[in-house]
Amino acid sequence: xxxxxxxxxxxxxxxxxxxxxxxxxxxxxxxxxxxxxxxxxxxxxxxxxxxxxxxxxxxxxxxxxxxxxxxxxxxxxxxxxxxxxxxxxxxxxxxxxxxxxxxxxxxxxxxxxxxxxxxxxxxxxxxxxxxxxxxxxxxxxxxxxxxxxxxxxxxxxxxxxxxxxxxxxxxxxxxxxxxxxxxxxxxxxxxxxxxxxxxxxxxxxxxxxxxxxxxxxxxxxxxxxxxxxxxxxxxxxxxxxxxxxxxxxxxxxxxxxxxxxxxxxxxxxxxxxxxxxxxxxxxxxxxxxxxxxxxxxxxxxxxxxxxxxxxxxxxxxxxxxxxxxxxxxxxxxxxxxxxxxxxxxxxxxxxxxxxxxxxxxxxxx
Length: 365
What we know:
Strand content: 15-25%
Order of helices and strands: EHEHEEHEHHEHEHHHEEHHEHHEE
Number of strands: 12
Radius of gyration: 23 Å
Shape: flat
Largest sheet: 6 strands, mixed
Number of helices: 13
């Protein structure tokens, strides 16, 4: 499955600088709004030490990690929901992403102009929230009006749709995001086709100066307090540090640099871990002489659906899966040794895949 995160934020919060540093894409970074007009897409590999260990054991012809796409989307301003700035284009670009990475400026720098004249991450967050909520309200209203015209048919599904849409409308009109609407999980299907912007999971990336990257600062604390009820992820990241890391040639150099800064991992790794956590994603592996490969699935996915991530034929003709837990694979060293030790299991259609499973699928189409 392809995972896509949209990087959003007000102009001049460090959004494009961060994107350039962490991805293979190249967005123009400049000290003025709207320097990123078209969405830039960068693809990054997901770091996973388990993949490296499997490579050492299996010695395949190639190794394929899983990837994440980051989409750098033009800076948003007040009035975007009404078409101000690059509003409608921005909002259209963000509809297709799985999660939103909201970069919030948490650093002071008189040389970098703030679009609203001062640094206030809570205000900045609320500006973007409001614009996304207004756009969602417009989408809900449009569908509600369409269904109200059909209400005279007394179709139960139409009446239920109207009921749920009215709940979403009232919630959004209070200035609250769709993801917190007080409806059952199954009721979200009535708005699924709308791709509501504020229904998407959010990661707040607090962009700080170098001296604040370890402990944060008062701007970060203010934002954390403001979003504590949102079930969002909050990470501290320094776009300036990420830019320096990106210029280093070797992994060894990057690790030395991080160590010197007192960091355990890069901001990119933090971002990837936060995305996997908030989207409830797991990784399973396939391992053979030709390739060792990582695959991304949703937590709770059953074996046939996990097989379908490789190819739809695998899911359609699924018979069973051969499964070895990652720790067992490392302990015994080979697939045959795991088989001899009774650590290779045959699982059927109801098996729920675990993070780190090494799998081989049997199918017939």
